[in-house]
Design brief:
447 residues, alpha/beta, FAD/NAD(P)-binding domain, D-Amino Acid Oxidase, Chain A, domain 2, 3 domains, eight-stranded mixed β-sheet, 19 strands, globular
Length: 447
């Protein structure tokens, strides 16, 4: 995947609100189009590889899906090789596996996943982006925007207790789930993006264990296990084990609703012993970090594409637009795809006197794809629990998805099509192919 051939300088100063992965990748794209790119970040980011207070989920499991990894490699060439050199684990197709109620999916495709903790992956991206000569960070808290002729003209921020105003030509909101942008634009008389919430009620517990084997010596380096009642061990819904930097295993257990994942190492190991063998093996070594928990009440999505009145020269990316159930691992990859949408918008001779409709339309395709996979599964689970009345067309869609998922255990073609979507290399619409669904149904009947 090549970089754009034409990258005109469009701005004197561009500003990114938030130094998350989404903000950093947006800054990388803006570096091709602005003389100066300033990232305003409130968290301390000088210590590499350390968690940030603004990312409460960063100590849980993370990874770079093939779709996102391809985009990051596009914007930061050599990123994968550098991450491996520093301890990141590139997991080949033979070293990754998905279990459905202890049944193993058939192997499909040749896609590779880059595994590492969230602080590790973020610090690698930050190092590369801040090495660009026209990108810098400002330790401050963004407090608002100013406008001129229906376009953003300045950013207000507080640094060391003093309020400042920075004149800007373009702004990217990367302030995450708790972004204040909706309130800011509404107070200025513009449309407030509609916020959609889907209850998830997920409860994570994650611990680190020492790993003796080197990545190339591992039979399996990455596993995901999904369970449904009554086969779920100790009320568990999902488990994941990843080989990460520092010769460690990161093991995550996730439950829904009233169930809580194991809170003690003894209970944690006991649950893992009831799962596929790699889980018991991963937790058998010494503990290198005690259990840390995380609770997320809902998935969120803000609709920017449907706005009619919105400031020009202003866009949002990453979790500020959509944050999903993290068990699907889509967050970092979505952020990378949002950055590529921003690039396509900027090289397309946009009309900067109007809201960035073209960008939001491109981004909506990415958001729709991720939301279909994660929110679709969560909605089906909630409807089943609550006995909700489900429209006939939704019932048909869920039936087809169930057939496809079951067929991944026995049919390589179906497994490849499904994993390509899960890895964010293809849109979920591709799973609606009637021929593919017929093949899944036939495979399940034979099984």
């Amino acid at each position: 995947m090549d970089l754009p051939e034409r990258t005109p300088v469009l701005f004197d100063t561009a500003c990114v609100l938030g130094g998350s992965i989404a903000g950093l990748l947006a800054a990388r794209v803006l570096a091709d189009h602005a003389r100066t790119v300033r990232i305003i970040e409130r968290d301390e980011v000088n210590v590499e590889g350390r968690p940030r207070a603004g990312v409460p989920q960063d100590r849980q499991g993370h990874g770079l899906l093939p779709g996102g990894l391809a985009q990051i490699e596009r914007w930061l060439p050599g990123f994968t090789r550098e991450a491996q050199h520093l301890g990141g684990v590139l997991v080949g197709p033979d070293q990754q596996v998905v279990y459905l109620d202890d049944h193993r999916q058939v192997r499909s495709g040749n896609a590779r996943i880059l595994m590492g903790s969230r602080p590790f992956l973020e610090s690698r991206i930050r190092t590369r982006v801040l090495a660009l000569p026209n990108v810098s960070t400002l330790s401050a808290q963004a407090t608002g925007l100013e406008y001129r002729n229906d376009a953003v003209s300045a950013v207000r921020y507080v640094a060391d207790g003093v309020e400042h105003v920075m004149s800007v030509d373009f702004v990217v909101d990367a302030m995450g789930r708790a972004s204040k942008l909706s309130e800011w634009v509404e107070q200025a008389g513009y449309d407030r993006p509609r916020l959609q919430r889907l209850r998830t009620g997920i409860d994570y517990a994650t611990a680190l264990f020492e790993r003796s084997d080197k990545p190339d010596d591992l039979d399996l380096a990455c596993a995901l296990a999904q369970f449904s009642p009554p086969s779920s061990p100790d009320g568990l819904a999902v488990g994941a084990v990843n080989a990460i930097e520092g010769d460690q295993w990161l093991v995550m257990l996730m439950a829904y609703g009233d169930h809580q994942s194991s809170r003690s190492i003894e209970a944690f190991r006991s649950t893992c012993a009831k799962m596929p063998p790699i889980f018991g093996e991963a937790v058998s070594g010494p503990v290198s970090r005690e259990i840390l928990t995380y609770h997320q009440a809902d998935s969120r999505r803000r609709d920017f594409a449907g706005l009619s009145r919105f400031p020009a020269r202003l866009v949002s990316v990453g979790d500020a637009v959509a944050s999903f159930n993290p068990v699907y691992g889509q967050g970092i990859s979505s952020a990378a795809l949002h950055a590529s949408c921003l690039s396509e918008y900027l090289v397309g001779d946009p009309a900067f006197g109007m809201r960035a409709a073209e960008f939001f339309a491109l981004q909506e395709v990415v958001v729709d794809a991720a939301w279909t996979i994660s929110a679709g599964g969560d909605a089906a689970r909630l409807d089943a629990i609550e006995g909700a009345e489900v429209p006939e067309d939704v019932q048909r869609q869920r039936w087809a998805m169930d057939q496809l998922i079951r067929a991944t255990l026995v049919d390589e073609t179906v497994a490849h099509a499904f994993s390509t979507v899960a890895f964010m290399l293809a849109h979920p619409f591709s799973l609606g192919d009637p021929a593919l669904i017929e093949q899944a149904v036939a495979a399940n009947q034979r099984a």
